[in-house]
Amino acid sequence: MVSNFVSAGFRFLPSVPMIRGMASSESSNEDSVVSTIEVTSSQALSADDSDVGNGVWEILYDMPAWGISLLVHVAILICLMSITWVIETQREVEITSTFEPEDIRQEEYVINTEVNEEIGSDSSLNIVGPSMAVAQNSGIDNHREEQEKINEVIIDPRLQAPTAMQAPSEAELLESIDLTGTTEHAGGTEGAIDRITQEIAASLNQRKTLVVWLLDESLSMEGRRELVAKRFQGIYKQLGALDIGAEEALRSGIVGYGKEVHLLQSDPTSDLSLLMKAVESIQNDKSGEEQVFSALNMALKTFLPAKRKMRANMMMILVTDERGDDYQMLEDTVRRCTREGVKVYCIGNTSVFGREKGYIPTTWEVDGETYQKDLPADMGPETVAAEGLQLPFWTASARNLDRMSSGYGPYTLSRVCAETGGVFFVAEDSRGRKWDSGIMRKYSPDYRPLRDYQRQLSTNSAKSALVNAAKQTVLDGDDIPVPQLRFQANNDNVLRQQITEAQKPLATMDYYLQSLHSILEAGERDRDKLDSDRWRASYDLAMGRVLAMRVRAFGYNAMLAEMKAAPKVFEKEGNNQWRLAPSKDVNAGATVRKLHKKAIEYLTRVIDEHPGTPWAFLASVELGDPLGWGWHESKMQIAAAGNSGAAGNRPQFAPEEEARRQEQRRRQQKMKATEPKL
């Protein structure tokens, strides 16, 4: 072992003298060997570095630390690779199980119908489950106990009182209202004034406000002016109660207009008594003229300096029932208002659907007698030009269809409101049929400038044809006849005479209808290019009605000519009158049958594509009666012939009745002579 240790010691000694010392001491005993090792070791450790420089040791000496570490690890890996570990593979044990089938005993279930205090049946499988056993042992008391625990521990049934939220003021709510440029049905004059109050309050929330009231002085506006005057005090008191500084921030002026413009309160004021006095001083204008846009321009000229000085918003409120006779100033007025940032509002009437003339109930007094009548007024149309044909209906089922509401105000007033950011408030709707505003929203008129409207007509022949045809009926509307449908026939001569008189106004009717048809037919190629529901509905209705009237006129003339040539014989004795009534039989040639088919096609399309609209309603009225004609006999009262010849055909009345009739005729004549102009 000592020799091994020595050998190991020699491997780690770097000096050669140490090896020589060891060789010379081979014959010595064990103690001398140990002593020699110690001496030699000490000599080696003290040797000079110059002795280390030859062979492998020189390389190891100069090698860096990472190199020595690499050599050591490589040596260790080589040693580990030389070790072999033998693993004996164990033999897998295969386990095989065999199960013998067991005979399953068939259970017999016996249902006992006798009342038993125990739950279950008499089956041998009747084993009470845990939940059932608990129920039998505990009853329902455990449920009550658990519910009490839930109520006490888990759930607190008491509702927390909600924290009260401060409601916004009415003035703050008004900031969210944005209906500018629209038509609003506010619920009569009172409702319109209330909405105007809200608009003024919303403006005062932003800055100081100057309000100018422009009141129509015509006779038909007397009642509405009184309503405005009565509510003036309420308007300004309500504004003062909103805590928006209306007393200091709100100033108002009053302008009246008719044939001339009157500055009733030209100095903007917040004094309510002065405003009331100005309104009450208005006198009825009998000229029948309404210079609406002249009044607007005068108000701009008068009140704009005050607006600039106050640095305020400016609102002009028109109170009227007509479109204005000076509408040629519309575009210039719109430009001035928009340039100065002035909003225009209107409290007015709706226009009659597709027509220029509307009717206003009017009451007047002459020589102690009071008269009342619906007088015509310029209330429309709702578009730039009339886009509906003013053709009469020939059957008794169509009455007062010339007074249907369009649902919108006149184009002129609606446009100035829309362009300036105001609102047209409907104070009074037409007395005729009205329409759902939600449906009619898709058919809103086009409020773009006149030049844009004219450009549309020049680029679409269907639009141009419709406007031209409508214009033709406006000019000739009063001359379009309604045919006579009842004919006295106490003898053939009287019948022929009446037929001849009835044919005279209808002689040129077909030519007139053919002219309208030609105008509309010229635009038929662009019908599919119409860009709105309103244009499509208007064109289809116009074409359908013209075609239907041509079919009726053809049939009417044919029936009269046939009856005149060979009068029919009454089947029932005592009858003395022939009456023409609508019939499904169209007694005409192939051309008329073709027109009939096309008319049905156009009118049916209007009904199908535009339900709930005035266009669909008028189309359904036209199709409500067949387009053909048939004769029906009846009896009428005919006065006995007197000595005066022609006068004998007139009915004879009792003296009292004759006097009443004469008084009525006198009153009618006086009423017509004294009708006021609106």
Largest sheet: 7 strands, mixed
Query: What is the arithmetic mean of pLDDT?
Result: 78
Supply Rg.
55 Å
Give the low-confidence spans. Answer: 1-53, 119-140, 157-163, 167-180, 641-648
What structural category do the secondary elements indicate?
Answer: alpha/beta
**Strand composition percent:** 5-15%
End-to-end C-alpha gap: 146 Å
What would you say this structure looks like, in words?
With 678 residues, the protein is α/β, with parallel strands linked by helices. It has helices at residues 2-11, 16-23, 30-45, 55-62, 65-81, 130-138, 141-154, 170-173, 188-206, 222-240, 246-249, 272-280, 292-310, 330-340, 411-420, 437-440, 450-459, 461-476, 492-506, 509-522, 533-565, 590-609, 614-623, 655-673; strands spanning 183-185, 209-216, 250-257, 261-269, 313-319, 342-349, 357-366, 369-378, 424-428, 486-488, 577-583, 628-634. The strands form 3 sheets. It has a 7-stranded mixed β-sheet, with helices on both faces. α10 (222-240) packs antiparallel against α12. It is extended and about 165 Å long.
